[in-house]
Amino acid sequence: MVTALTSEQVHRYLARIRLKPTDRSPDLSYLNVLIRAQLVSIPYENLSIHYSPTNTICLDIPSLYNKIVLKKQGGYCMELNNLFAALLIAVGYDVNARAGRVWKVGSPSGSDGESDANNWTGWSHMVLIVGLEGVDYFVDVGFGANGPVQAIPLPPRSSLSDVVQEVRPEQHQIGPIKVPHSPSQTMYIIRHRRDPESEWTPLFCFDPYTAFCASDYEVMSFNCHCHPMSPFVTNILCTTVEFDGDRAVSRMMLQNNVLKVRKDGKNMVMEKFDDEQARINCIELLWGFGITDDEKKGLQKWGLGIQGPEKEKGVPITGWS
């Protein structure tokens, strides 16, 4: 069970995402207001794995609150969704944390590919299930470049959800999938497409029924930020979503030495960085992070410092290319 934030912490969290305290009831409309404010204000990023004296991630609520609210940084799924769950619980929502397996980029899609356990990671993603008036909603503020931007009602276990409009013209859809390593059981899968004419691509499958505890996420997070082949170890990532009112219109994305914006379904390169200070200046300008000299030294561990002009770096990650 995620620990709720105190009243004072809620007020400071709301200020962090540029919202005022309110006595609104915890309904679907306010849930989506909170999701939008979070995605605009708090970046999905893995900078602490690289720009850090310790190169480590802590998932306890006090550490996350200090990092994300007080220091005004961001985090990846298990950081962002964990703290967001604490906020939701504090303002009256019924929230359960669950886990997912991420689709390996480049794997064949379609039913044959999706049924192959080799095309999925182990448990490596954290999601939230929010119960409202007898309906379970899928919520995820921590999937990065292709993540959903609103709460999505879970469909019956045998059917697809409605197609959900996201950062236009992107779309998401949730449906059932046979568990790849145990086909007699069923999970949910969320798929994404850049526009209505594109093919659906799996993002991850998730289990809304099995409870996970804090130590489970600690194990998952350790693998994500310490395994030498983890995409979080082999890439530097940072992204936020921009809205026009309640309509998501673009994503700003940093991957290694390239800054991109996705608009109208296309990724466009805005700037390519040929030295480390240029990337740091971009991070500070766009996301407000101050990176100290001690934090810069952390780049030595995984070797992702920019040494000079070179091609776009990094391994393929869903949505970033």
Please characterize this protein's 3D structure.
The protein has helices at 7-16, 28-41, 61-70, 77-90, 110-114, 214-226, 276-287, 293-297, 299-302, and strands spanning 44-45, 94-103, 120-132, 135-139, 152-153, 164-165, 171-179, 182-193, 201-207, 237-244, 247-255, 258-263, 266-272. The chain is an alpha+beta fold. The chain has a domain at 232-302: Arylsulfatase, C-terminal domain, CATH 3.30.1120. It has an eight-stranded antiparallel beta sheet. Helix 1 packs parallel to helix 3 (61-70) and helix 3 packs across helix 4. It is globular. The mean pLDDT is 93.
What's the topology here?
Layout: H1 7-16, H2 28-41, E1 44-45, H3 61-70, H4 77-90, E2 94-103, H5 110-114, E3 120-132, E4 135-139, E5 152-153, E6 164-165, E7 171-179, E8 182-193, E9 201-207, H6 214-226, E10 237-244, E11 247-255, E12 258-263, E13 266-272, H7 276-287, H8 293-297, H9 299-302
Antiparallel strand pairs: 1-10, 2-3, 2-9, 3-4, 4-5, 6-7, 7-8, 8-9, 10-11, 11-12, 12-13
CATH topology annotation of the domain at 232-302: Arylsulfatase, C-terminal domain
End-to-end C-alpha gap: 36 Å
CATH architecture grouping of the domain at 232-302: 2-Layer Sandwich
Strand order of the largest sheet: 5-4-3-2-9-8-7-6
Structural category is alpha+beta
| Strand segment count | 13
Residue share in helices?
25-40%
Using the alpha-carbon principal axes, give the shape.
globular
Would you state the CATH class of the domain at 232-302?
Answer: Alpha Beta
Rg estimate, integer Å: 19 Å
Percent in strands: 25-35%
